[in-house]
Amino acid sequence: MKFDQLRRSKLNNWTIVHLRYLVGLAFFPSGMTKLIGHRFTSISTDNPIGYFFEALYQSGFYWNFLGVAQITAGILLMTQRFALLGTLIFFAIITNIWIITLSLSFTGTWVITSLMMIAVIIILIWDHHKLIPLVSNKKDLVIKHFPPVDKIWIIAGISYTICFTFLSLFNPMMEETSGLLTAILLGLIFLTFMVSNYIYFKNRKKIL
């Protein structure tokens, strides 16, 4: 089956859209932790992993910058419309993290980062046609046009972004109301998922 046929498949589009959501979500907790200036781990500095993260934490603004970069990549992926830019930023960051988890022998973490690497590569392959003009000098090159992202996914991405931001930012700092807030936000996430998918699959003839 040709790439353009795969690209126009409703199921394939649904899979990529939600893979972007999943990958984008992965950076929110750790990114927000760095952005607000908290330590990412409590591992002792006697351990090479703990020493490494403590050194990053003590770097000051660079620690916050890492958080900004992760959150930015996550938000761009969640928007769907600017997902390619988010994917490129995410790819640069996750490649660095992947190498770190391998070199420092993180127990089990390298499996997670490897899966994230595979996911982001799949997303890059999906949008590779948008990158062709950057690496090709052919004047007669024709890039096929594919339908834009459905607005329902953009709206859903905004909802997910707001919910994940509040979950990552405020939940760790709240005590009495944290349980209620978490329940409300998780409810909104579930509602967003159900409504967006219902609207999308309701019209089966419509191509994303």
Question: Could you name the key traits of this structure?
Answer:
DoxX family protein, 208 residues, globular, transmembrane helix, transmembrane, mainly alpha, membrane
The structural domain count equals 1
Element string (H = helix, E = strand) = HHHHHHHHHH
Mean pLDDT: 85
Shape: globular
Q: Helical stretch count?
A: 10
Helix content: over 70%
Summarize the biggest pleated sheet: none
Number of strands: 0
Low-confidence stretches: 172-176
Distance between the termini: 19 Å
Task: Kindly provide the radius of gyration, computed on alpha-carbon positions and rounded to a whole number of angstroms.
Answer: 19 Å
Secondary structure category: mainly alpha
Beta-strand share of residues: under 5%
Structure overview:
Residues 172-176 have low confidence and may be disordered. This protein has one domain. It has ten helices and no strands. The chain has helices at 3-7, 10-26, 28-35, 48-57, 61-79, 83-103, 109-126, 132-135, 151-169, 178-202. The two termini are 19 Å apart. Helices cover 70% and strands 0% of the residues. The chain has 208 residues and is mainly alpha-helical. Keywords: Membrane, Transmembrane, Transmembrane helix. This is DoxX family protein. The chain crosses the membrane at residues 21-40, 60-77, 82-101, 107-126, 152-174, 180-201.
